[in-house]
Amino acid sequence: MSKGRLGILVGGGPAPGINGVISAATIQAINRDLEVVGICDGFKWLCRGDATHTVALRREDVSRIHLQGGSILRTARDNPTKKPELMKNVVETLRQLDLDYLVTIGGDDTATSANGVAASMGHTLRVVHVPKTIDNDLPLPDGMPTFGFQTARHVGAELVQNLMEDARTTGRWYLVVAMGRKAGHLALGIGRAAGATLSLIAEEFAQPRLTLADVCLEVEGAIIKRRAMGRNDGVVVIAEGISERLDENELAKLPDVEVAHDDHGHLELREIPLSRIIKRQLEATFAARHDKITMVAVDIGYELRCAPPIPFDCEYTRDLGWGAVEYLLGPEYKGAAMVSVQGGRVRPLGFDALMDSETHHAKVRVVDPTCESFRIARDFMIRMCPADLADTAKVNQLAEAARMSPEQLRTRFAALS
Fold it and tell me: Which residue range forms the structural domain that includes residue 26?
């Protein structure tokens, strides 16, 4: 006889390992004599008061899906906290489904929604959230990555390695934009693992607002320095989150750019072709000096999100799915929380520790540009720096590669740090 009903839903974008959480949570819930209901498309149908888009999950349905990418329950970005009537629909629909427990899988926005649902139901529904994002931007204890990040980095590094070989073979430059709205962990991780020529993330820029000129100057400097070293090829990995630091008025004036926002108020980054924008500006800069450069704009991200998880994420997501159910059923349940691995043990992390008291959204873990890890990454990049401009011999060599005078070179790149 069933001891209750547990629902599982997935919100936000895909990430490798989602099916591993679904599988582990389902199997452990069945082991604990619960019925399991899969809720399709995140909060989408719940927000519409529609309880029909669900599926019963059995052991045989999920026993091997932990090896697969994607999500058998699909996913969506609908935000029930956006309007009171949406939250009301979610609460009423969850009650129709007669759920005692709810496992949500997603990033910071889904975490915020899960917390809101728990509060709106007066905490009569036990809720636990499993953190998921290839951006690795949730502040998990002990520096643990969010699940999906390691697989995304692995697959992304392989793609960039292939592009580096193509660049060397054909004598061209690739500008690769990698996903990472609020944090540059993925772009930096891919660039470090693949040994890219240069990786650029928003966190390394001190100013709160960037211009395209700020970003392009870093890339231009790397190209010139690489030329001075005898190479006319390279790969630059750029975090898409740089787009959010750019002035929207500047973006709106560019061709092929649509400035729009999603249900969570975020800039629609897929409508900002950052790699093509930077390519176009750099080509114009070099052309003004009667210099030609061959560049190719590439975006990677969608190729990573539904990749089959590597063993790290297969194991990690099974731990998280198991831990989610154990927390919901255990005597230590003290309200909605996020499940995490701390010191090698699966432990809950209260939403209060995650939420920003001012924004009422989950806190964000960004790359610390002052840490040793970033310094190591930067030291292995090829990028122009003040030390280059202080060395007369280097300046002369760089100026020749740039088709500038030494004075022009010093003036142009004086702002680089």
Answer: 5-147+309-354
Label residue 273 by pLDDT band (50, 70, 90). confident
Whether residue 107 sits in one domain with residue 226: no
Contacts of 44 (CB under 8 A, 6+ apart): 53, 76, 78
Is 243 domain-assigned? yes
Distance CA 256, CA 277 (A): 9
Q: φ and ψ at 331, to 5 degrees?
A: -70, -15
In this predicted structure, what is the pLDDT of residue 174? 98
Give the span between the Cα atoms of 265 and 79, in whole angstroms.
Answer: 10
CATH number for the domain harbouring residue 277: 3.40.50.460
The predicted-structure confidence for 218-243, as pLDDT tens digits, reads as follows 999 999 999 999 999 999 999 999 98
d(CA 227, CA 291): 12
Q: Residue 62's domain is classified under what CATH number?
A: 3.40.50.450
CB atoms within 10 A of CB 103: 29
Please say if the pLDDT value at position 368 is more than 70.
yes
Catalytic residues: 135
